């Protein structure tokens, strides 16, 4: 640990690394060296010291099976040149693997308009959007019984400095101890600020925050130990997800629930009743001690 190694030092210097906001580095240093007399100097060449570098453009990777770059380019130009957001286009060029990269200004409406035009054209073009803000979902537990949605939104505003229209807040739901719970979806950087704090004060109480964990599952055999690219197991991609049967769909199923992953009856795959699912969830919750 860096704190142990520098225990006798009265002053140490930390050089700012690219990719981390200096404010985050400062907070991390404060946590590491709290209750010590060590003075920390942070050296940086970053001008915008309080914020991570912001993306200035959005982009789309566009391709069509069996078509050359110039053939795809011709199609894209024919569609985009009549679009109302054409003025947002910055550049069009090829990627290393011969696909088309369309770069536009950082304008969510323009990105949506052009992407929709390419999809609606039904010309066989495949698109992948780049640079869109990532969102994460957090669960809030321990809210007072009379808490309201506005109370939560106001607390988030006070903590992260903003509440954006794209954020989503679920209906408040009761728990069995006369408290409430809610679910919020917001930008990853806001979610990171909240989870680093570890709680959200709403009213008089510090409400517990939990990040929603997305367990990766092989879409072929349903295992939690690998993805489809590395799968050597049974192909269950068209099997009934309720009972695991291969001769019908879940909508048609009249059988009792059965899990082909743990081979137990009484539950279907991917639920908390499945020991394999719970083991995967526990592994996902385990801290990665290799970091830091």
UniProtKB/TrEMBL annotation:
Keywords, comma-separated and alphabetical: Metal-binding, Zinc, Zinc-finger
Metal-binding among keywords: yes
Residues in CCHC-type domain copies: 240-255
GO MF annotations in UniProt: nucleic acid binding; zinc ion binding
Protein name in UniProt: CCHC-type domain-containing protein
Protein species of origin: Psylliodes chrysocephalus
